[in-house]
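Below sits the subject:
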Amino acid sequence: MSETSLELLRLLAQDAPAERIDEQARALAAVDPQSGAVARELALRVRSGIDAHRRREAELSALVDIARDLASRPDPGGVLDAIVRRARSLLSTDVAYLTLADAERGDTFMRATAGSVSARFQALRLPLGAGLGGLVAQTRRPYWTADYPGDERYAHTYEIDAAVDEEGLVAICGTPLLVDGEFVGVLFAANRTRRPFSRSEVALLGSLAALAAVSLVQSRRAAETAQALSALSSAHAGIEQAAAAHDRFAGVVLSGGGVDDIAAALGELLGCWVAVLDVDDQRIATHGPAPDPGTDPDPLAAAVAVRRSAASGRLAEADGLSAAVVSAAGQRLGTLVLGGRQPLDSGQGRTVERAAMVTALVLLFRLRAAEADQRVRTDLLADLLARPDGQVDGALVERGRLLGLRLQTPHVVAVCRGARRGVHLAAATAGDGRGLAGDHNGEVVAVVPGRDPSAIAASMARRLSADEVQVTVGATGPVLPAAGVRDAHAEARRVTDALVAMGISAGSARDLGFAGLVAGGPGDVRRYLDRILGPVAEYDTRRGSDLLGTLEAYFAAGNSPRHAAGALHVHVNTVAQRLERVASLLGEDWHCPDRALEIQLALRLRKLQAGQAGLDG
C-alpha cells in the first residue's frame, strides 16, 4: 500500500473534514488514476456516512434534551413556548409556530410563535382543510412545500394568504400533534425564502411534535391535578395537613415522581404504612413503618376494605385498615391500603383520596406510554413475520435498536397457545423488554434473545401457565431476526401443533426429533435431514467420500463392521476408520439407541427422497 493510500486511511481515522480527504484522494488519483478514483469514492462515502450518523446522533441527543426541558415545565404556556423555540432552533428555520385545536369552533388557532413579526399572523385561525395547516388538521398527516404561495395543492383563502404574505413566509412544513389518536394541534417550521424540506427534516419535526403532544397533554393534566389539589386546599383551608398534602403531592407529580414516591409521601404525612396493590390485589410495595412481626394485617380485613372501596369509588375502612381505589377513565388501576394508625378523620380521608387520584394519573400516564411502546413493538414483530427470509434489513435493525433490541444477534422464535393476551403477557414472554412479543393470527408469538429453544420454551411455559391454565410453547432457532423469521415462525407453529397433539407443554423441533415430522410439512423433512445428517453429508460433498453409504451398510449389517466391510468390498479397518470419522462429526453417542434410531430414520427418508427424485426425473 502506498504512502498516499496510508495517508488517506489516516485522515479517515483522524476524522478529517471531507475537503481534506478529497484533496488527499485527488493526490492518490494523480499517482494511480484507476485505484485513486475508487479510493476517493469510497473514502468520501465513508466520510458521508460518518457525518450522517453524527447528524442523527445530534438530532436524537437534541430530542432527549428537549424531552427533559419539556418535562421540567409544569405550565402549558411554558411548554408551548419551549416547543416552538426548540423547533425553530432544531430545523434552523426563520419561524416556528404552533396551533391548537378548538373543539367548539372546529378549527385551530395560533397559540405560540417564535421568530414571528406579524400581529395579523399571530392572531390567525385555520379552518379545517384550509391552507397547509388546515389540511394537516383535517387529515392528521404531515404536509410540506418549498413555495406555499404558488402551491396549488392547498386550498388558499384570502385571510390565510394575507397573513402568510405579511409574515413573508414561503416554505412551510406542518405536522400534527397526536396523543393516543387524539388531535391536539399542529406544529410548523417555516422559512421566508424558498427551501425544500427533506424527509429527514419532516421526520425530525414529527418526532418533536410527538414529544410536544405528550408533554402538552401531561402538562395540562399536571396543571389539572395541581388545580384539583389547590381546590382541595381552599375547601379545607383550616386543615394544615390537607395543605401539606397538596404541596407534597403536587411536588411529587410535577417533579416526575412515581407511585412509590406518592405512597411514601402519604405514609410520612399520616404516620402510617401504605401498601400499593395492583389491579389483581397483589401487593407491589409497602412504604412507611412496617407492621411488627406477628401483627401483619388481617388479609380478610384488607380484602373487605378493598372490595368496599372498589364498589363505592371512595375511601373505605374495615377492622382498622383503610383502602382507596385507584381508578381513571372508568378503569381500576390498583388500590392504596393504609394501616398502623388510629382511624382517619375527614381531612385525612380526603388526603388519602387525593393521593389515590394523583396515583391514578401517574399510573394512567405510564399505562398509556406502555401501550404505545407495545404497539410499536407489535408493529415491528408483524413486519418481521411478514418479511421473507433473506438478507438483513437495515431499516428493521434500526427500528429494533431504537427499542433497545439487537436484531442481528441470535434469537429464538416461540409460539404460545392458551396464553392470556395483553401487555403483561408480552413483557413476560419477551424477557422484560429484551425481545418482542404480541398477538398474531390468534396466537402469541415471541422473538426472544437466546440460542437454546428448548430451555426458552420450557421457561416461558412455566412463567405463563397460571390459574390452572396450561400454556403450550413451541420454539425453534436460533435465527437472526433482521434476516427474517417467517420460516422459523412457521416451524415453531408446527412444533406447537405437535406438542398440543402429544399433550406436551413445551419443546422444540430438536426435542421432538422424528415425532415432529408427524405434524410437519416437506420443509420439515429437509430440516430434519440437515439436523441429523448434515455434518456427514457436507463432509461427503467436500471430500468426495461416502460416509453416508458406510452408515447405511453398517446398520443394514446389524451394526457389524465386519459384515458391512463385506457388503462394501473394503477392509474392515476402512469401515472402522470411516465410523471414527462419523463419530467426530456427529458425536461419540451417535451409535446409542436413541441417536441410532434417529440416524436410521434420516437415512431411510433420504433414500426415499432420492428415489422420488429419480421417478420425477
About this structure: The CA atoms of residues 62 and 90 lie 8 Å apart. The chain has 22 helices and 16 strands. The two ends are 54 Å apart (CA to CA). The chain has a mean pLDDT of 77.
